[in-house]
Write a structure and sequence with these properties.
The chain is mainly beta. The protein is built from no helices and 17 strands. Strand 8 and strand 9 form a beta hairpin.
């Protein structure tokens, strides 16, 4: 049967006939389709993306769309700057019928990390260099105790205070390590050098 108004004819055991009008409405057919998805390149970041479209006969009729994101919702069919997790797309027709579909933004299992050094102590006047070179390191930025910066893997240690290094790998992931350096009030030869 097609959508519209039809009549049902009923005959009982005595041969009597009866008619009844029946209205059939067309089913709202919705389909939620993934247009694009961007998983996370770096673990722990929130730059994932999702985009969907709505098709089917029901898409031509009044309906609403939303994403269920934890305890919040978003009406846009395009999500940006999203963390790893499950996202549910919901289409609701004017009559209350709903269609849902879930999508997952994934992230790498392992994070990019950097471990350069623990806290250090040296005799004053020592000449010390710390090497933060990483196998996949592409860019380096040291922040020195006085606020100065070094953009090479190796930094000279000549001040008391905190040293912080940020390393960027080939995928654009960033990792940092920080440690404190103390120079003890003990003299040492100017020719004595340490390298790590």
């Amino acid at each position: 049967l097609e959508a519209g108004r039809d009549f049902a004819v009923i005959k009982d055991r005595a041969g009597c006939y009866g008619e009844a009008a029946v209205s059939l409405r067309e089913t709202m057919d919705f389909s939620i389709n993934l247009l694009s998805k961007k998983d996370l390149v770096c673990k722990g970041t929130c730059d994932g993306e999702l985009a969907v479209s709505i098709t089917g006969t029901g898409a031509l009729n009044p309906h609403s769309f939303s994403w269920q994101i934890g305890g919040t919702t978003s009406p846009s069919k395009i999500l940006t700057k999203r963390c790893a997790g499950i996202y549910t797309a919901i289409v609701t027709a004017a009559g209350g019928c709903r269609v849902t579909k879930t999508f997952e933004i994934k992230e790498p299992e392992k994070a990019f990390t950097v471990e350069v050094s623990n806290d250090l102590q040296f005799c004053k006047n020592s000449t010390v260099e710390i090497n933060a070179l990483q196998p996949d390191g592409k860019a380096y930025k040291w922040t020195l105790p006085d606020g100065g910066a070094v953009t090479t893997p190796v930094a000279s240690i000549a001040q008391t205070g905190q040293y912080k290094v940020e390393v960027t790998n080939s995928l654009g992931c960033n990792a940092t390590d920080a440690f404190n350096v103390t120079f003890l009030d003990i003299e040492t030869s100017a020719d004595f050098a340490l390298a790590f």
